Amino acid sequence: MKTIQVATTINGDSAEFVCGHDETLLDALRNRLGLTGAKEGCGTGDCGACSVRLDDRLVCSCLVLAAEAEGARIDTIEGLAQGETLHPLQQSFIDLAALQCGICTPGILVAAKALLDRNPEPTDTEIRYWLAGNLCRCTGYDKIVRAVQDAAAKMRSA
Amino acid sequence: MALDSSSKRVFKVVGTRPPRPDGVDKVTGRALYGADVSAPGMLVGRILRSPHAHARIRAIDTTAAEALPGVKAVVTARDFARLEGDKIIDMGEDRTSLRDVRDNCLARDKALYDGHAVAAVAALTPEIARAALKLIAVDYEILPHVIDVDAAMRPDAPVVLAGRAHENVPGGMSPNVTNHSEFGHGDLEAGFAQADRIVERSFTTAATHQGYIEPHACLASVTGDGRADLWCCTQGQYNVRDICADLMGMQASQLRVTASEIGGGFGGKTVVFIEPVALLLARKSGRPVKIVMSREEVFRATGPTVSASIDVRIGMARDGRITAGEAVLRYSGGAFPCETVDMGAQAAFACYDLRAVRTLGWNVLTNRPKEAAYRAPGAPQAIYAVESVVDELCQGFGLDPLEVRLKNAARKGTKSSYGPTFEAIGLEATLEAAKAHPHYSAPLGPGQGRGLSAGFWFNFGGNTSVSLSVNTDGTVGITEGNPDIGGSRASISLMAAEELGIPYERVRTAIADTSSLGHNDVTDGSRVTFAVGLATIKAARDAKQKMCARAARIWGIDEEAVLWEDGAAKPSGPNAGDFPPMTLAEIAAVSFKTGGPIAGHNEAHADGAGVSFGVHICDVEVDRETGATKVLRYTVIQDAGKAVHPDYVEGQMQGGAVQGIGWALNEEYIYGEDGRLQNAGFLDYRVPVASDLPNIDTVILEIPNPGHPYGVRGVGETPIVPPLAALSNAVSRAIGQRMTRLPMSPPRVLEAINAGR
Amino acid sequence: MVAVTLWGSLRRFTGGEGQVEVEARNFKELLDRLAETYPGLKPQIDRGVSLALDGRIYREAWFTEIGPDSEVVLMPYMTGG
């Protein structure tokens, strides 16, 4: 099968990879670039565990072709912290126990970051609707909503 | 081990909410789950599954697949080791036949459900593996199938498996009936004769899936000298090892199983599906093989709950006293025998102090995937039916459902509906807390309804090994063997820190592979914080004794004259001498000079887990045009014995409640006439999403478990039990029609509304 | 003698008795005596049972001692998720 060469930017670093013409961005991230933070929970865009940002747009990377990364900017969970310093969302998720098994956490953090970039002071309802595409089966979402609010408040006062 | 006699003990560390040790890994994407590991030269494994609900497998021709370039191995059921006889194995859910486990991993003579695995390939790439599956020719003889539990009990129903009925099943029934049980006590008819009103209702509940977000995944590597390594997401690496070793004809000691981080389990990862198949492929190809299930495979071929059909009859006196209760439970655990109905039949009336009670349980085979455990397996269905009828009786008499439950509540000294007399239990306190909660007295708007339900689960202990090492820098490492699903590493570290008298930050808990620590039962039965905690406390006490002995030698006094207090050894008693205390760090620093490394350990079978009760209050609003139910407010009240890390106790209560809400409102396995599953994906099998829900309020009560030194009870399973009836009672009250089928999806609610018009 | 309460469906194998008495000092002896005296119970005992002693449930504990006044209830092998 013919492969495609892709030049892209991932978490601020330029990156190149080859992929199949029908390969998803999720598979390329995980299998070709070793970035396994995005998870495949369904492969059909229903669970949000593979959420990444493509030129700031929040996408399910299982529904994006790897070749679409050409010339684009991809942001994944691996780029959320600055070195040792966690992003306020990451810190709030730990402090407020907003994760149990943690498999949905990378996708939820990426999605929550996209929300706070657009809306730094969301209501609980806005958080719940924004995150409606990210399934969590452990927490019942309560502590997730609280953690996003906690991080948003800290970011506003920073 | 009994509750520490100093019952007014003041905890220093236990009960605090420190960050979990795996937190940073999990928020940065660093944590490695089942599908996140690779090995050099690794092949891709894929599984061919039956498209038929029930079919005899006449032949499987794999020659074309094997000839495809890039295919390195093809396996079928014939590749498993010959089993000399059968044996019963413990798989979290119930005691399962090893043959059944094998035949579920790869079908032998018959495909028993849509999605049943029949063959597997290992190839260089996913594309080649997919192409190879299409080249495998399976000669099926399609057989009539049966999906519904009541239909499968009829004498003329298609027979899923013959000859599998236990001796407890009376003669003359369909061969699909494999297990029967009866529980209870007292004179039922005398009890009903005392009733002022008797309500009898039939209920059904759909099969639901655990819905863990991480599909099953594993990586297997087998070497030519009979050794193997398996990396997988599982709730119990030791059971995976023992089962796989048997199926492969290997020695358990030569198979090392490492549990990855686990992306949810809820009971569904207590079993094996792909792990033995990956090992077969790895052995046959001589290369590492990774298998990752798709979401569709997870739905079609891994464990849903039982589907159930239940009749309940309860008699009540005008003053709200329940005079008699009876339930008949018909559960189907899918295509292989299981005994989950025993648990349901025991749990059905466990919340009540009854003079006359009887439950009958029947397990029935159907052409559905084999059931796997799901949080308190068997109990939610049974308690849903009972709590619905209790609610209807309360409505009929105009009585407060909380007062009625308090009047009839099981308490210490009650002869339980399943036999034993209860020790100290927390139901009454939980009901009182519900009554006092502002939620219970808050006003309801028009078209809204409030539902209440109590719930119960047994909780278990089980086989446990823990090793605790005292490092020379004064820190402590704990090695335990139970995969951490919901923060257990934090709670184990907390208990060790409490016992040793050192800060939580100095303790790290790691989970061992099967070669590094003695056996541990599966992470199930709400057992980990209880049983691993118990073993950790004992291991810490073992280490403390050894540290006291070292201090005694250093001071030149008797060991008996040294005691451990506030993280240090201290001389004690009149003749002990006057020495300054030696801290754990000070003793550890010189340990190599005083006799060598210091470690504590404990291996035991933990019993005395202590049953747990919860009460849920739920407000809903039903849209009378669409039948859609909106959950407005939800409160969970539960007895945790002692909440070691309250955040994660709340997390269990909230998560379990929301799974129960999904079960009540939306989730179900939907089969077509052809016996195929029609909704094998998250789009059509709808689990609750964030926008469906309100916050889930929690109240933790602490009625100490007499069977644990800190009073800990398991908390993980009970929270899924009450939501089914809490929702059903709320919806029934909101629409003025009694709901008797789960899920209460909008079309069903609409149907009920229209029936009442 | 220890009085053992059986669950209902086992009465078929004890001549209708819901409670039977056997000579036993611990669970192992109790299960052995039950299986000897009532061979119909053996398949269930072999598949697995739990025992409740004074309200506390035990799964695998052969050598748990039983006092003369203990409440002993035989239960199916208990499982969880």
Description:
The complex is a heterotrimer of chains A (158), B (757) and C (81). Chain A is of the alpha+beta class and 158 residues long. Chain A folds into 2 domains: 77 residues, Beta-grasp domain (Ubiquitin-like (UB roll), Roll), CATH 3.10.20.30; 70 residues, [2Fe-2S]-binding domain (DNA polymerase, domain 1, Orthogonal Bundle), CATH 1.10.150. In chain A, 34% of the residues lie in helices and 17% in strands. A 5-stranded mixed β-sheet of chain A has the order 2-1-5-3-4, with helices on both faces. The mean pLDDT of chain A is 97. Chain B is an alpha+beta fold and 757 residues long. Among the domains of chain B are: 155 residues, 2-Layer Sandwich (Aldehyde Oxidoreductase, domain 4); 184 residues, Aldehyde Oxidoreductase, domain 4 (2-Layer Sandwich), CATH 3.30.365. Chain C has one domain: Roll (Ubiquitin-like (UB roll)), CATH 3.10.20. In chain C, 21% of the residues lie in helices and 26% in strands. Chains B and C meet through strand 9 and helix 10 of B and helix 2, strand 4 and strand 5 of C.
Furnish the topology, listing elements before pairings.
The complex is a heterotrimer of chains A (158), B (757) and C (81).
Chain A: E1 3-10, E2 13-20, H1 25-32, E3 51-54, E4 57-60, E5 73-75, H2 88-95, H3 105-118, H4 124-130, H5 142-157
Parallel strand pairs in A: 1-5
Antiparallel strand pairs in A: 1-2, 3-4, 3-5
Helix pairs in contact in A: 2-5
Chain B: H1 23-28, E1 43-49, E2 55-61, H2 63-67, E3 71-75, E4 88-90, E5 95-97, H3 98-105, E6 110-111, E7 117-123, H4 126-135, E8 137-142, H5 149-153, E9 177-185, H6 188-193, E10 197-205, E11 217-222, E12 228-232, H7 237-248, E13 255-259, H8 275-285, E14 289-292, H9 295-301, E15 307-316, E16 322-332, H10 340-347, E17 357-364, H11 379-397, H12 401-408, H13 427-436, H14 438-441, E18 448-457, E19 462-470, E20 476-480, H15 488-500, E21 507-511, H16 528-555, E22 562-565, E23 568-571, E24 582-583, H17 584-589, E25 598-606, E26 612-622, E27 629-639, H18 646-665, E28 696-701, H19 723-735, E29 741-742, H20 746-756
Chain C: E1 2-5, E2 19-22, H1 27-37, H2 42-47, E3 49-53, E4 56-58, E5 72-76
Parallel strand pairs in C: 1-5
Antiparallel strand pairs in C: 1-2, 3-4, 3-5
